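User: Round two. Same drill as before: sequence, then structure, for each protein.

Assistant: Same drill it is. First protein:
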Amino acid sequence: MIDTNILFEQAVSLLQQLISIQSFSKEEDKTADLIEKFLQERGVTTNRKLNNIWAWNKHFDASKPTILLNSHHDTVKPNSGYTRNPYDAKIEDGKLYGLGSNDAGGCLVSLISVFLYFYEQENLKYNFCLATTAEEEISGVNGLELIIPDLGKLDFGIVGEPTLMQLAIAERGLMVLDCVAHGRAGHAAREEGENAIYKALTDIEWFRTFRFPNESEVFGPIKMSVTIINAGSQHNVVPASCTFTVDVRVTDAYRNEEVLEIIRQHVSCDVTPRSIRLKPSKIDKDHPIVKAGVALGRTTYGSPTTSDQSLLDIPSVKVGPGDSARSHTADEFVYVEEIKEGIELYIKMLESIC
């Protein structure tokens, strides 16, 4: 069994190397190379598809259930507020700085460490599948979603995102709807045409006020927000069409397809979803991994932000070192002690059930 202090030291070193390599979404090939080499040097047989690396524990047994350990190695682009080199992974005052250090580098290297901790252990009750994936920051189709068919049967998952090691047991789904209200053009000076803006206003008011009958125990009601509207070409022409965009944050009380059907039944405009892939997720409070975390003093909550958890059709908990409030900020950092704590807590949670 590997000493957790050694795992911690290796994790910090690996994270520093990852930070030093630019890995914007769709450009993660070099960080994928690094992760692949890191695992192979430690005797792990790896699999790769595009910029996604995955592996199973050494004594994988198909008759046993499998736990997914997943986090991502792509980053957003650094914002203009940076005062430091975003690729210079220095440690100062206990903080490891750099782009992607918090989102989700600390989680990623912690879960890799946990996988290595269990990798050679025999007689476990569960198998482990480690998936280090790409394109999370853009909800891309060539990340986790691409390799899910290759991972085999999964029973539940731990998704590594910065949560201060608290347990996100539910996550909102997301649908972005492009809506078009149709009218008929005419001259504004005469009683001509049918104003598409007025037709759109009726539907917009519905989006503002409608409350879905079923509500989530964690989140409460579904939230719908009209965020963009556009119509008209000049002041004296009655507009024939009015387009608007609706941001819909779906809760675990519904599937995305159900919400879309209800919306279409109530509005007169054309409604086209950009995607229905980003599903709401939930894991029962009585699930063994949740109970294990609570027993270690962790709290449960519902996450308003989306992650690769939305692509999974299995129960999953989102938990990891770091703070989501630091994600995508200038001079991003993670405390090195958060990584140490993350590794230890992940292991304790999993040991209690494995």
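Second protein:
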Amino acid sequence: MKFFYISLSLLIMTTSCKNDVKSADNSIDTNDSINLVQRAKAIHERVITLDTHCDINVKNFTDTINYTQNLESQVNLPKMKAGGLDVAWFIVYTGQDTLTDEGYKKAYDNAMSKFNAIHKLVEDIAPDQIELALNSNDVRRIHSSGKKVAMIGIENGYPIGTDISNVEKFYNLGARYMSLSHNGHSQLCDSNTGEADDVWLHDGLSDLGKEVIKEMNRLGMMIDVSHPSKESMRQIIELSEAPIIASHSSARALCDHSRNLDDEQLQWMKENGGVIQTVAFQAYTNKEKNDTRNEAILAIRKDIAKSLGATWYEWSETKTLSEADKNAFYDVRAKIVKLADEKASQIKDFPPKVNVSDFVDHIDYMVEKIGLKHVGISSDFDGGGGVDGWSDASETFNVTLELVKRGYTEDQIEQLWSGNLLRVLDEVQAVATKS
């Protein structure tokens, strides 16, 4: 049974039409909000909702503090149940550091701590509530049993170091997608961040990166291009025998950020047969709107941070912090943001947040540009993601509601939420079976 949080603001927003995706026998009475919500609830109950990018903190995977509790984290089991989020891809993330044996060892240990945390959740802490899936059949079987589904993605191939056997080791631990870089050039490929200074390390993929692509094809692990550079993406598509994904990116035409895909990259994705998982990250959704609000709320956040004995940092500033200082800030960041938002809500005409409607604008754009079968959904929760109306997993229903308001049919919503991503996973694993 799914439970749903409904934002009042979403119910009174003006409904927009998508005549190109709405079929005659699925027309809706946009003036009857009650019927619309009930219809959306029924669809949300039936489809498998899947979010390809949920970051984790290993501190939340202990015997005393864990995802069975409604923690401050944007994703946990109570929030997944409240919002009807069925599948969460938990992320083994490591930030970019030096390309040295010491850096690789540190990254490997960090990655293993996150693998171990995820396995502890599904095997020891809450095996009665959530189970690890390794393929699409597992997803459907676990979902049918009434449990939530965990899957694993790797954000940054840096922990592989120079030992390609680590790819298979991570696969055997349950990883079913991996990005070859994060924010900074790795030993495997260049990052999108090279656009800032036009300094590149490999001009795309390194020789080791090319071997890793082949190994991922052999094993059946999806290749994620959300963080690699545009040239890296081009070379990945040229080399890979299987379709690829962008696990958490949006349309650059609507928001000019190097983490988003431009129209040429979207076309590559279509020709490759892959899928782009639209991300609900405010800075990648509507930069102008987000910048305006951030500028207005900055002083409030700084004051609240100071009152909590902390310091407020913008995302760009966290790159200069030590790992310990960065983790300490992340531990308190959500609380600062929440308190600042509450204070801002009391100020008349305060600049609004980027919201679910802005997020679904990206889905609309990419559906129209490259076709519905190449578009999916992701949040980047607990990694900076979240928009007004989908600020954590408990509000997941609001995304379905917005899609229904825009005229998407149940079959189309099912494709967006999980069908397209699971299709790519099937095709990637089929390539592995043949090799």
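The radius of gyration is 21 Å.

User: Perfect.
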